[in-house]
Amino acid sequence: MTEKIKQIKTVPANPSGVLTGSHYLDGDHAAAEGCIAAGCRFFAGYPITPSTEIAERVSARFPRVGGIFIQMEDELASMNAILGASWGGTKSMTCTSGPGFSLMMENLGLGLMLETPCVVVNVQRGGPSTGLPTLPAQSDMMQARWGSHGDYEIIALVPNSPQECFELTIQAFNFSELYRMPVLLMMDECVGHMTERVVIPKAEDIHLIPRRYTSLPPEEYLPYKPEEDLIPPMPPVGEGYRFHITGLTHDEKGYPVMTAEAQNKLVSRLVRKITEHIDEIVIVKEDGLDDAEVVIVSYGITSRVTIPAIEKVRKDGIKVGHLRLITAWPFPGKHIKAISKKVKGIIMPELNMGQMVREVERFACGNCIVRSIPHAGGWVHNPDDIYQVIKEVAK
Description:
Blueprint: E1 21-26, H1 27-37, E2 42-45, H2 52-65, E3 68-71, H3 75-87, E4 92-96, H4 98-114, E5 118-126, E6 132-136, H5 141-146, E7 155-157, H6 162-179, E8 182-188, H7 189-193, E9 195-200, H8 260-275, H9 278-281, E10 284-287, E11 294-298, H10 301-315, E12 320-325, E13 327-329, H11 333-340, E14 345-349, H12 357-363, E15 369-373, H13 383-394
Parallel strand pairs: 2-3, 2-4, 4-5, 5-8, 7-8, 11-12, 11-14, 14-15
Antiparallel strand pairs: 1-9, 5-6, 7-13, 10-12
C-alpha cells in the first residue's frame, strides 16, 4: 500500500483460517479479513447500516480462527466489551456508523484514559441523527477527533479502497498496540460497499506489532509508569499481576488522585505520546506536488472522485498536485504548512459541510488561498464541480 507503513513481524493465531490470494471483496468484508489477519480474536458489535457487513463477516469467519463474536445490546456495551477483552489479553475490534459512533464516545474516552489497545471501524453515512442510513458521507471526521470530552490525541486512518480497508485495519491494530490506545478506521459507505480485487498475503508474510508486556515482576510493576517513549507496558494476564485501573485521573499505580498536578502529569503524557511520534504516525500520498500551482487535499472516496478533475485540468496546462490523507488524525499540518508556502491555493472537497478544511485553514500560511468544496452527502461530488474550482483558484 505505502512504503511508509512500518510493521514488525509476528504470526497471527491459527493462520490456517486466514484467507490468502486474490479475492473480490467489498470494503466492509476486506476490513473484516484485515482484523482476522491482524490477530484480532474478539469482536463485539451492534448492527447498524452501512457497517453491518463487517460484523456479519466476522461472525461467520471467527469460528474458523478461534475467535469470539458477540452481538451486544447497543454500541455503549460494544465499546465496553472490547476494552475488557483487550485487558484480558486479546486483540479486539468493533464497528459502527454515525449515531452508533456517537454512543461509543464516552467509552472511547475511557479507553484512551485506560490506554487500552483496540480498533473501532466507523463506516460513515449522512447525518445528523438517523440521517441517510444507506448513503455516503464523511460526516464524522471532527467527531472522531473531538467526540469524547477532555484533552487527548487520537489516531484515525482513512482508506479509499477495499485493498486499503484490509491493509489499514492491520495498520490500525499495529498503531493501537504500539501506542497503547484505541485507533479509528474512518471508512465511508462508498468504500465500505465498493467491490474490488483485494490481495491478501500469506499468513507468514503478515507483519504485526505485538503487544508490549512488562518485564518487571508483579511486586515491582506499575500499570501506568511509562518507558522512554512515554508508553507504559501492559501486564501479562494470569501471571500474578494485581493492579488498579480507573477512568479517574490516576497516578502510575493506577490509583485515583484528584489534584491538578496529577491531571497535568497524566493528560500531558497522553497527548505527548502521540504528538512526539507524529512523524511515525502520519501517512500521506503525494502526487505532482513539486511544481504545483494548486493542490487538492482529499481523503476517502472523495480522493478517487478528485482524480478525473485533476486529469482534466492538467490537460488545460494547469499544474495541479494532490495530497491524499491516509492518516487524518493526527492531522498532517507540517505537510500543509510546507505546501502553502509554494502554491496559489489549496482546495479541499469533502462529503460534509467543511470539517477537515478547518485544519487546512489553521496550518496554511502566506498568501495561499484555501477553498472548501462542501457536499452534504447522499452521493459523491461531480468531478466537474471540482474542476471548475481548480480553474478559478489557478487564475
